[in-house]
Amino acid sequence: MKKTVTMIYLLSLLTFSSTAHALPVIDVEAAIGGWMQIPSGTLSYPAAGSNDTLTIEDDLNYDTEIRFCGRALIDLPVVPTLYLIAAPMTFEGVGQKAFTWEEIDILPQFTFYSKLTLNQYDVTLYYSLPLLNLATLGVLTIDLGLDARIMDVEVLVEQEEISFSDSQSFTLLVPMIYVGAKLAPGDTWSIEAELRGISYAQNSVYSLIARLKAKIFGPAFATGGYRYDIIDINEQGVFVDTSFSGPFVEAGIQF
To answer: How far apart are CA 159 and CA 111, in angstroms?
Structure first.
């Protein structure tokens, strides 16, 4: 499933980028970069007691990682703007603690290995508020829409001394509300912000992205910004209550 989702995303980016050259009425923006991901929070499966809840910082010992991020925006006339984002995340570490995982007691005298994979893919459809854009002469833009987030999650825990290895994986399709804002006083730079979020049942997912975008030459631009994600999900007995935050940089083209 993970490979299939990734291929769909890459093919979508390539297809839309190449199609845009043949259809001048389509405005396209595409960027790739790196996101410094600082993890925080807890994992458990299942949480039989407070001691079975593993903290990312102290028990799992996950470090900050820099991962690829990419996005593409296709602005079509009349129909909603299509916005795609890919943000894969993988963390791994070695810890030492007594806890229960899937009714198996992990021994504290030996180390254990764990790995968390949480890949996120967003498909957003939105409209800009036309009257506001007209009233501000294009300086301020507000976007409202719906987002579908595909989340590929896998949690792996191993302890070699007791021959224990368990992997729990699932894929979630999370619908979210999308709100975007853009302040562009001139043609050379702009400030952008994006908010996606929803809370339902025992799950909550929120993402906040802020970026400063500057043109370099021609269609090329560069951005720097910050992304903050809150992911609190309970699926198939796996409790993931985490946040991921950090700065990012991008290079892209817009035409």
So the answer is: 7
Burial of 108: CB neighbours in 10 Å, binned 0-12, 13-18, 19+: exposed
Whether 213 contacts 223, CB under 8 Å: yes
- The span from the CA of 158 to the CA of 172, in Å, is 24
> Across 45-133, where does the E strand assignment appear?
54-55, 65-75, 81-87, 90-95, 99-101, 104-106, 112-128
Q: What share of residues in the chain are helix, strand, coil (percent, to 5)? A: 15, 65, 20
Residue 247 to residue 226: CA distance in whole angstroms: 4
- Site of tokens 């296709």: 74
- What CA–CA distance (Å, rounded) separates 152 from 235? 12
Tens digit of pLDDT for each residue in 97-148? 999 998 899 999 999 999 999 999 999 999 999 899 889 888 999 999 999 9
The pLDDT of residue 2 is 55
Q: With contact defined as beta carbons under 8 Å apart, do 191 and 209 qualify?
A: no
Which pLDDT tens digit goes with each residue over 198-252?
998 889 999 999 999 999 999 999 999 999 999 999 988 899 999 999 999 999 9
Task: Please say if the pLDDT value at position 10 is more than 80.
Answer: no
Residues ≥6 apart with Cβ < 8 Å to 161: 107, 110
Q: In terms of C-beta density within 10 A (0-12 exposed, 13-18 middle, 19 or more buried), how is residue 68 classed?
A: exposed
CA separation for the pair 192, 83 (Å, rounded): 14
Say how far apart CA 143 and CA 51 lie, in whole Å: 44
Identify the DSSP state of 53.
Answer: P
State the Cα–Cα distance between residues 243 and 255, nearest whole angstrom: 34
Residue 16 predicted with pLDDT over 50: no
